[in-house]
Amino acid sequence: MGNLVESERTVPWMRNRAVYPGFFDPITNGHVDIILRGLRLFDKIVVAVLKNPKKEALFSTKDRVAMIQEIFAHQPNVEVRAFDGLLVDFVRRQKARIVIRGLRAVSDFEYELQMALMNRQLDPEIETFYMMPSVHYSFLNSGVVKEVFSLGGSVAGLVPEIVEKKLREKLKQGRLSVGKSPQ
Length: 183
Ligand code: PNS
Hints:
With 183 residues, this protein is an alpha/beta fold. The chain has helices spanning 12-15, 29-39, 61-71, 87-93, 106-122, 142-150, 161-172, and strands spanning 17-22, 44-50, 78-83, 98-102, 127-131. A 5-stranded parallel beta sheet has the order 3-2-1-4-5, with helices on both faces. Helix 3 (61-71) links the parallel strand 2 (44-50) and strand 3 (78-83). The protein is globular and about 60 Å long. 4'-phosphopantetheine is lined by residues 21-23, 50, 86-87, 115, 118-119, 183. 4'-phosphopantetheine binds at residues 21-23, 50, 86-87, 115, 118-119, 183.
């Protein structure tokens, strides 16, 4: 079979569980759009929130997880968990083999290709599955949301209401400054 993948080794109960990893600082409607699209294809999506001390975040891991939990409170097929270490290890612990990622534009491609191939190198059983978000969110990332909001711009319709509320709180506390974390 050479380099061909062996489809007969797929275990059905693993096929229907996917992990959607990210930093989510904070989650945007682009992320929500990808999760909703994923729910049309997979029985369960585990949203994996990276707790990475090397990357400075506006929101604590607890807050990032809590916001996503609140957004999907009525969606039992969405589970939210924090993780650190290698993504492939987390995916294996979740008994999943699919990683979902959103692809907004060509500019995302190089980073995503490197990540997908590195993850495949680390665990050839895990496959990365890409989806395009709605065109309405194709310009959106967490960094631009924080920047616009901190400068007085409106992010209505770009983030869930709970995120807008939490951003307002950070602004009041004087904790929202531009350039804190890129994603
Ligand atoms: O929201 P982001 O910043 O695009 O998410 C990146 C993330 C969390 C998916 C990525 O940084 C990651 O998987 N980190 C865990 C460490 C790891 O497994 N690294 C090897 C893959 S390159």
